[in-house]
Amino acid sequence: MTTDSETSEDAILGGRLRVRQPLRGHRVGHDAILLAAATCARATERTVELGAGVGAAAFAIAARAPGTKVMLVEIGETQRAAQQAGRACHRV
């Protein structure tokens, strides 16, 4: 991600979750939110999301279970840059 004109910041879950994501390519969908909802994360646990994209599933878990430690793994450079913006926004 080189400029803001290549990304958007979107609100999910009624604004509780905000993600910065590329305008082109795969974008956050219901699958990430459903994955987070199906996870039994607790505040004292750690969650690892492999192939995290912009981190929507992990950030949704962190929003649902405050105190959960999340680790995001992604090889895409653009997605990793978006994750950093998300980490700053959600303090995870």
Q: Can you walk me through this structure?
A:
- The chain is α+β, with helices and mostly antiparallel strands.
- The protein is 34% helix and 24% strand.
- The chain has three helices and four strands.
- Helix 1 crosses helix 2.
- The longest helix is centred in the C-terminal third of the chain and has 14 residues, at 77-90.
- The radius of gyration is 12 Å and the shape is globular.
- It starts with 6 loop residues before the first strand and ends with a helix.
Question: What's this model, at a glance?
Answer:
The protein is built from three helices and four strands, in the order E-E-H-E-H-E-H. The protein is an alpha+beta fold.
Blueprint of the fold:
Elements: E1 7-12, E2 17-22, H1 30-37, E3 46-50, H2 56-64, E4 69-73, H3 77-90
Parallel strand pairs: 3-4
Antiparallel strand pairs: 1-2
Helix pairs in contact: 1-2
Write down the secondary-structure element order. EEHEHEH
Which strand order do you get reading across the main beta sheet? 1-2
Structural class: alpha+beta
What's the number of helices? 3
Average pLDDT, rounded to a whole number, is: 82
Q: Count the beta strands.
A: 4
What summary fits the major beta sheet?
A: 2 strands, antiparallel
Give the quaternary arrangement of the chains: single chain
Poorly predicted parts: none
- Name the helicity range: 25-40%
End-to-end separation in angstroms reads 21 Å
Rounded Rg? 12 Å
Shape: globular
β content, as a range?
15-25%
